[in-house]
Write a structure and sequence with these properties.
The chain contains one helix and 23 strands. The chain is mainly beta and 339 residues long. The protein folds into four domains: 129 residues, Beta Barrel (OB fold (Dihydrolipoamide Acetyltransferase, E2P)); 69 residues, no CATH class; 51 residues, no CATH class; 67 residues, OB fold (Dihydrolipoamide Acetyltransferase, E2P) (Beta Barrel). The strands form four sheets. A five-stranded mixed β-barrel has the order 2-4-6-8-7. The N terminus is likely disordered.
């Protein structure tokens, strides 16, 4: 087996994630070896995940089950990829040097549908002699500590709160990028101020979270025309569709209501068009209904601030307006209005 690479400083694997996938990998090793090894799962040193590497899948992943162990897992054969640190040239291992990668099913609907040719990140557990892939085979965008008093499940959406360490003189200040979870998220966490947890997170534990890249998520589709999503205040269980937001819907189940969708959180929309609902008094917050186009209302109302570019004049009911999100203030603001 190729010598694994050392993890970069600060990279972690949550205890909950390691607990689950190591159990699966251990069973795989026992089965493939056909032995009755005396050491069992309870004797595994759970600090032994020390290395990580890139792999290119050489086959589609498939679900496996072992006799006497009803809990399934997925696995696939893969080629190790090495990257020259000087030239940045990537080199694949030979086809006769394939390595089996184990995918945890918990918290990931993709584990059993990984495709040949996909690039994944896997961590090596020496005690099990097995390579174990991340739940989503990606590094977290942010580390989240749960201080809410109860367990936060994988897929939960939380607001990114204050940093865990704020003392500049603390030795870990420059290396620890952990933030405290705010659950449920609030209106101030819209447009990227949130994270979706990759693993279950018991109170007091730290897990990775994401708010970028392409993910599979549950979305409350509020209108068939909606092409973006964002978080909604006091709702950490799902995203909500909209005509603007932090993520672009690439695909979704048909119909409205709670649906599975593939969302690209690298694509954002900060503006939308709509019509005033009632008179919008200058200098105050009023209501605007979103429109897909000038003739199609989508039935989604937003609280917007009317204090800009209208010469101090109120906007009457049912007038066309253009609204933009201002991140520096965390508000939606009218920037143009029908005369």
């Amino acid at each position: 087996m190729p010598e694994p690479e050392i993890l970069k400083r600060g990279q972690r694997i949550s205890a909950a994630h390691y607990e689950g996938v190591t159990r699966m990998a251990y069973r795989d090793v026992i089965s493939s070896a056909g032995s009755d090894r005396s050491d069992n799962y309870t004797n595994i040193d759970k600090t032994q995940v020390l290395t990580s590497a890139l792999f290119k899948l050489d086959e589609r992943s498939s679900i496996k089950t072992l006799e006497g162990n009803p809990e399934p897992y997925a696995s696939a054969m893969a080629k190790r990829i090495t990257i020259n640190p000087v030239t940045q040239v990537a080199t694949e291992a030979e086809s006769d040097a394939l390595i089996r990668i184990v995918f945890p099913l918990k918290g990931s609907r993709r584990a059993a549908s990984r495709q040949k040719g996909e690039i994944v990140v896997a961590h090596y557990a020496p005690k099990c002699a097995a390579w174990i892939a991340d739940a989503e085979s990606r590094k977290p965008d942010v580390w989240i500590e749960n201080g809410t008093g109860s367990t936060l499940t994988a897929g939960k959406i939380v607001g990114i709160g204050s940093p865990k360490i704020t003392t500049i003189g603390d030795a870990a200040f420059q290396s620890d990028t952990t933030f405290m979870a705010v659950s449920p998220p609030t209106a101030t966490h819209r447009m990227g101020g949130w994270a979706m947890l990759l693993d279950d997170c018991p109170n007091g534990e730290i897990v990775g979270g994401v708010n970028s890249g392409i993910v599979i998520a549950q979305v409350n589709i509020r209108h068939a025309s909606n092409t973006f999503v964002d978080v909604k205040a006091s709702d950490g269980d799902k995203f909500n569709s909209s005509e603007w937001g932090w993520g672009k819907i690439l695909w979704k189940e048909s119909g409205t209501g709670l649906k599975w969708a593939r969302v690209d959180f690298n694509r954002h929309e900060t503006e939308f068009i709509g019509k005033s609902v009632g008179t919008l008094v200058h200098g105050t917050t009023g209501t605007v209904e979103q429109y897909y186009d000038p003739a199609t209302a989508v039935g989604i109302n937003e609280d917007v601030l009317h204090d800009w570019m209208t010469g101090g004049v109120d906007i009457p009911d049912d007038k066309e307006v253009q609204v933009r999100w201002f991140s520096n203030k965390g508000v939606l603001r009218i920037v143009n209005a029908e005369c």
